[in-house]
Write a structure and sequence with these properties.
- The chain contains nine helices and eleven strands.
- With 281 residues, the protein is α/β, with parallel strands linked by helices.
- The chain has a six-stranded mixed sheet, sandwiched between helices. Strands 1, 2, 3, 5 and 6 form a five-stranded antiparallel sheet that branches.
- The protein is globular.
């Protein structure tokens, strides 16, 4: 009997450990404004996976990222990060996570090198380690020629590179990239995705958000989000086969139209492309 119990516990633990990120009935409700930013999201993101959160602006992507990272506390629900509970284990979880937010979290009066070094010291890396990682990231992200330039004077693409470098300096195993490729040119976007795959192959888990549909095609799995809910999930190939379409954008349009019909049947009108994330009233 005891052997069976131990087996069941170990089996459950092994299943749990295969996920880098797992949420259960995750909600974020702003009661003052009566806004349901996140409505019962259930995520299971595997270790060493690129998972793309795809949805319109205001659909709940950034709010979810903020709760996963510990910036925001959920109204209700559970968050499991690498076997630990967020926000209960926030201090333990923080070193595991690297964040490149939608709005640059850079110090504009510091140079490129100084920004990376600052974030390294923030995570209490030793001086030698900070210098080694800074040198490595400057090279990998093609920032060497800009290392002594103030962040204020960088182009949008360069700021994105620097933001990613700052997220990686402490060698996290989970990366949260919020709109990391927005506003960058096509060549740089290709470079970013090649680098994301390299990071995945090194064992890192990446959750990235985007409202650009063709980004979904490059991820291992995607979650389509609307009004704070995941309306579809799977690999790009699985979803295109399921809906018999050639691209993810067609699926998104199809599901959005279905949403409009459902809302109208309840005497409501909520057009996804006009009122993303607002919900129906």
């Amino acid at each position: 009997m005891y052997v069976n119990i131990i087996y069941i516990v170990l089996k459950f633990a092994m299943r749990l450990m295969q996920f880098a990120i797992k949420t259960l009935d995750l909600y974020k409700i702003y009661k003052r404004d009566k806004v349901h930013a996140v409505n019962g999201i259930n995520l299971k993101i595997y270790r060493s996976e690129i998972y793309a959160f795809i949805g319109a602006n205001g659909s709940g992507k950034t709010t979810t990222i903020d709760m996963l990272s510990g910036i925001l506390n959920p109204t209700s629900g559970e968050i499991n990060i690498w076997g630990m509970q967020q926000p209960k284990d926030l201090k333990k979880i923080s070193p595991y996570i690297g964040i490149a937010p939608q709005d640059y979290s850079l110090y504009m009066d510091l140079t490129v090198r100084e920004n990376i070094e600052f974030f390294g010291k923030l995570y209490r890396l030793g001086s030698k380690k900070v210098k080694e990682k800074t040198k490595e990231l400057l090279k990998i992200l093609n920032l060497e020629e800009k290392e002594n330039v103030l962040a204020e004077f960088l182009s949008g693409g360069m700021k994105r590179r620097l933001s990613i470098a700052c997220a990686l300096v402490h060698e996290p195993i989970i990366l949260l990239f919020d709109e990391a490729t927005v506003g960058v040119d096509p060549i740089l976007r290709v470079y970013f995705w090649d680098y994301f795959r390299q990071l995945r192959n090194e064992g890192k888990t990446i959750l990235l958000t985007s409202h650009v549909m063709d980004e979904a095609e490059k991820a291992d799995r995607i979650g389509l989000i609307r009004d704070g809910k995941i309306i579809e999930e799977g690999t790009p190939a699985e979803l295109k086969e399921k809906y018999n379409v050639n691209n993810i954008e067609d699926i998104f349009i199809l599901l959005s139209k279905r949403g409009e019909v459902e809302d109208e049947s309840e005497g409501k009108l909520c057009t996804f492309f006009i009122l993303p994330g607002v919900g129906c009233s």
